[in-house]
Amino acid sequence: MKSGTYHRSVAQPFGIRRCLVFSRAWPCHWLLVLISVSSCIPDPLEVRGIPEVKSQIVVSSQIVPDRTLAVLLTRTLGALDASDETDPQALLDQIAVNDALVTVTGAGRKDTLEFLGNGLYGGVVIPFQPGRNYTLKVNSETMGEVKATTIAKPQVSFRTIRAELYNSGYNDTLAQVTYGLKDPIVQNWYMINVQEVEREDVIDNLINPWAYTRLVSDEAFNGGEFDEQFRVFPNEYRTGDTVAVSLSNISEEYYRFMKLRIDNRFSLVEFLGEPINYPSNVEGGKGFFNLYVPDIRLFVLERPRD
């Protein structure tokens, strides 16, 4: 474009304003370029007809140490419903599903779970039989119906286990876990969780995205013994802290689900929001219905003896 000439944009159909670009003198050139850029900003477009995403029930389940089943029901979050600065308890109050009838059917019996508050259902001891199918059904007046079927997994316990403090040498004191297990002669997938114990609160355990999670497949040691040592990041621990270390024998489907979700464990909103790309065994909803009995061990952390 020669000095003293101008170019007029003809991109009017897309709402772009006319652009005038002058370049008479060098000192004015950059100013006019900035003016031309600002004058080319598209006019705001009115967007209509985009349907709202329907909220769905999210299922989380866990068999607690006394062998009762706990099921947490929440609803999916919209993009503007909350942020990572949102208070967790206030968020749970907002999204908990509190009006559901929850039943578990399998092995010739049907049990109705009790409503315990804040979207939590349980309080019933069910003698789950490993290898049998069980179906969870949820009927909510406000959210509709969902169901999920899973197989009760046999428990696999720690063969050896200890947890202690570890000084990284960089002013960080971590928890170090050393454990071993005997793997049954079938294909198995394991989940090891480590979290600090401040109070016994099953809801905190179910929605706690800050618990350290480690996933292990027995592909390399099927039917044999397995030992390993790992350090827990990113939490810093002190002498006297109490941690719970658990070993769970989980399904392959849940193993794959957790591998996808583990990268979001530090975001409470992502954790409760259940993005649509996560796999799920819940028909008509999201999340995962599981029946596995964790082997849970408590440790008061001390520095290792020389």
Map the helices and strands.
Layout lengths: L25 H14 L17 E7 L5 E7 L12 H8 L4 E7 L2 E4 L1 E4 L2 E3 L10 E8 L3 E8 L6 E10 L5 E10 L6 E8 L5 H6 L4 E6 L7 E8 L9 E9 L1 H10 L6 H6 L8 E2 L2 E2 L7 E6 L6
Parallel strand pairs: 1-16
Antiparallel strand pairs: 1-2, 2-6, 3-4, 3-7, 5-6, 7-8, 8-15, 9-10, 10-13, 11-12, 11-14, 14-17
Please tell me about this protein's structure.
There is one protein chain. By secondary structure, the protein is α+β, with helices and mostly antiparallel strands. The protein folds into three domains: 50 residues, no CATH class; 95 residues, Immunoglobulin-like (Sandwich); 117 residues, Immunoglobulin-like. 14% of the residues lie in helices and 36% in strands. The protein has five helices and 17 strands. The longest helix is centred in the first third of the chain and has 14 residues. The N terminus is likely disordered. Pfam families: DUF4249 (PF14054). InterPro entries: DUF4249. This is DUF4249 family protein.
| Overall morphology | globular
- CATH level 1 class label of the largest domain: Mainly Beta
Order of helices and strands: HEEHEEEEEEEEEHEEEHHEEE
Q: Any low-confidence stretches, pLDDT <50, length ≥5?
A: 1-42
Overall tally of domains: 3
Specify the CATH architecture of the largest domain.
Answer: Sandwich
What would you report as the Rg, rounded to the nearest angstrom? 27 Å
Order of strands in the sheet with the most strands?
5-6-2-1-16
Helix content: 10-25%
Number of helices: 5
Give the CATH topology of the largest domain. Immunoglobulin-like
Measure the end-to-end span. 79 Å
**Mean pLDDT rating:** 78
How would you sum up the major sheet?
Answer: 5 strands, mixed
The number of strands is 17
Instruction: Assign the structural class, choosing from mainly alpha, mainly beta, alpha/beta, alpha+beta, or little secondary structure.
Output: alpha+beta
Strand content: 35-45%
